[in-house]
Fold these 3 entries.
Entry 1:
Amino acid sequence: MSMRTTLSIIKADIGAIGGHIAPSPELVEAVRNHVAVHGKDFVIDFNISSTGDDIAILCTHTRGVDDEKVHKMAWDAFTTGTQIAKQQGLYGAGQDLLKDSFSGNVRGMGPAVAEMEFEERPNEPFLMFAADKTDPGAYNLPLYLAFADPMYCPGLMLSPKMKDGFRFVIMDVNHTEGDRVIELNAPDDLYDIAALLRDNQRFVIEGIYSRTTGEQAAAVSTSRLHNIAGKYTGKDDPVMLVRTQNQFPATGEMLAPFSIGHYVAGFMRGSHVGPLMPVPRNSTTSFFDGPPVVSASAFCVQNGRLTSPADAFAHPFWDHIRDHVSQKAIEIRRQGFSGAAMLGLNELEYTGIMEKLDRLETEFQVRDHKSAEAAGG
Ligand code: F6R
Ligand code: MG
Ligand code: MG
């Protein structure tokens, strides 16, 4: 018997050991305890993991997306955790909790959220992705390749269940007054989709739907702390849910594009460009506060009950990819602040450079050629 299940991932950075490296075990335990105790009446199952300095709560329930009770429970888990973070002197305690009190929904309050409600298939495999030291646009390329490009997803040409392609819902995250979205179909609107997705800082895939069955396949956290807080608060460290197999890309088709280790925004001070490294669950960050990392946990869910996670990027294949990504990271770091290695001015997460440029502006002089000539120059 199938049921309507909601998967919710709510994740936040509420403090880390040694800088922005990893949460302490006590902090993770405090969040886990809170969910176990305070979610017990409505959470069917849950799983806690960390990626870099972020803690992700994955939970299943039947209350639908944007549910106040679920969001409040997660918010309270993070505020409870923050007390531990403060006691332990962890760096950036409570960093992502941007508001003082909870008001209905954690969207716009700091934590990243990705949720999906669906009728469970007889077997229901899905992937949970969590990334650190980058922003939601980091998923644009892998999603495009897995859901619209037969070079990466042969299922698009081989499987009759995917022959109609997928509908992409893309958000303009610069529009902060409300959700500004566009719906485009692959493969029909492929060039339009590409035209938007090239700009990872402005246009972010929010959701993807099967055009054959109408079912939702993917949900991405699209919030940008940059836009919420109006100043530097860390990068957005996005999470994503992707249902796989059968009418959706196979798990391996969804994982394949991550072998590129594509360059994304984030890295040190949220202000650089670095390659996205696929890592096991609960990995730390290191080199140059990075590189940007992404973990992938594979689950099956039945009647809201989760299996234990299979750690998709822990397989030895990814060791080779990680070596390659390390090389890409070293290569771009060699040019320091110059050109493509650092983000454009409106993406820099620190204000120091604007202050410098404003001061220098007053010291520039326009050379007067005429008076130089008259003086015999
Ligand atoms: C990146 C990140 C870190 C910090 C850096 C400086 O998202 O969080 O790279 O930006 O460690 O941190 P502060 O300014 O807190 O000393
Ligand atoms: Mg942090
Ligand atoms: Mg983080």
Entry 2:
Amino acid sequence: MTSVASNSNSAPSELGTVAPADAAFPADAVNTVVHRLRRTFDTGRTGSARWRERQLDALSRLLSENEKEIQAALATDLGRPAADAWLADIAAVHLEIKTARRNLKKWMSETKVRLPLSQLPGVGRIRREPLGVVLIIGPWNYPFYLTLGPLVGALAAGNCAVIKPSEYAAASSALLAQLVPRYMDADAVEVVEGSVPETAAVIDQRVDHIFFTGSPAVGQRIMAAAAPHLTPVTLELGGKSPVIVTADADIEVAARRIIWAKLMNSGQTCIAPDYVLVAKSIAPALINAMTDTLARFRPGPDTALPILDRRQFDRVVALLANHGGTVVSGGGVDESAATIEPTIILDPSVTAPVMQEEIFGPVLPVIPVDTLDHAIDFIRAREKPLAVYLFSPSRRVANRVIAETSSGGVVVNHIGLHCMAPNLPFGGVGNSGMGSYHGRWGFETFSHRKSLVSTKTRPDLPILYPPVTALKERILRLFF
Ligand code: NAD
């Protein structure tokens, strides 16, 4: 292993160094990518509204003209059906682009703010400035949405961007590397394929912001690697998102929505319902309704779902062992095909790995609870999740869950909808992440809010200047 030459004066990051011989992306190109993009940024061209609009339009064309290729890459990487690929990885980015395109001028315009009396006749304004060259690191589960989605905010805010897709979605990563330079300003947006060494090499060139989507464990490493450069980070992480179902909930609808969301991408979704806390009195009815729904949504004989790769398959299969509960539906695994049946486990041990780790697969633990207090206590005793879901007709119950639990977002009587609403900030809190994006929030994440005050040179009241007299102090106290 040889060390990467860094453009920064700071210490190298914690992630390690690039290995030129076996790197997926030419080492020379990796080691100079930030420098190259920064030269573009320094020309100032990415700051104009026109450039931003053109890039957003180009991104839209990239998606529309390559739908089939994107769907094929997702089928290769994840075995994802074409309709799901369109909805989650194509339509979702289009929605972000449309929102940014419609609001760009408004977002870019300076905001006037009132200044305190003591500063009049000055004028206060906030200007949003691009940060510079930003790095977007994506996971494998939605390889287009979770790289190009953040890119919308980065471009709308006038930045250059390096995209580092996950090496575990290799076909999608290769397609991104092929398409991005064909559609986008190639001196401003670059895809760097690879894994840890390539990521380290980019971070060590001192980017202006890192937008990371992935696991909390890797998020820690990214933050540590960013620290020597004081590079700010947005971390979009995972966790165990619980669903509470109260005794008076609409059981049929709750079952349909929970199963719909759990099956999506074989449960490999950050906002998937991880486990269910259900009122004891309706637990059997909810389990029956979810089992019926599974049979309707995935009619046999082959109900099993594809898992990304052998590593992920083994991880999820390990969660199916020693859970201490009862498998009430599914449970089958196919070693050779690396598929797992949608599985419901009733009342697993809370210390079992399936209740300790993010499941990220088609396995749903269901834990009956005596009261709403128990459900809330259960959630509060654990890491703050990305989402809390509640099925209940009661506004009072909803208000209690919203107020008494902490999570990235809450959805009442549905699953995951907050992720598809571009006017809502999307992000985690605590262990599920820091910072947010989508719509305006993505634009804000990739912008610096610069405070501006302009005032006149006259009158130039001597009150601020020394020597401070008792009279001056009395007057100052009136104004501040
Ligand atoms: P991951 O953390 O293993 O990898 C994410 C990215 O980090 C990949 O590009 C990978 O190449 C890179 N990476 C991995 N190890 C690294 C290291 N040591 N140094 C530098 N870079 C490294 O995550 P994953 O397995 O791809 O995705 C699953 C996780 O992502 C789950 O926890 C899921 O909940 C989370 N996720 C969160 C969101 C969200 O929006 N909050 C969305 C999707 C996935």
Entry 3:
Amino acid sequence: MAYPSKIILIGFMGSGKSTVAEQLAPRLGYTGREMDSIIVERSGLSSIPEIFEKHGEPFFRTIESQVAQDLRNVTTAVVSTGGGVVTNPSNIENLRANGGLVIFLRTTFETICGRVTDISSRPLFRDGVQARALFEQRASVYEGHADLIIDTDRKTAEDICSEILSHLELRS
Ligand code: S3P
């Protein structure tokens, strides 16, 4: 049996999705696809905060859903999602289509606070109380969508990649 055609990394802001995708993709011979970067490119603006400021979160979510739809037929890719991709369940359905495996990088809020140093680039992390509420609200949603859960506290991106690869070996 072969590896899944597509790996989708989900999890809260600062859970390490982009870094893990960047390191995991070449180890599988897959292409890394960063949804946030694709969204910014497609918006014609220069950053996520600018999208939120000029057009608001709903506009961002609309482009996010279009990007998820476009990734439906993509294969041999490791997709790193934005933390809010789970707010629209059809995003996950599109991303998982055609043999995708959804992996939740589970991280405690304390670890996330240590990792998210640049809050200016994350509009939904600027207020700590709201960020914690969002974290608590989404925790079970990520779990519900996950085919595989990897706990990432006190692990490097390399550790996480190796753990994912071991799981893939076992499944294949
Ligand atoms: C968001 C997470 C961000 C980005 C946007 C919204 C969220 O991505 O998509 O700021 O709703 O959790 P990261 O998870 O890569 O920070």
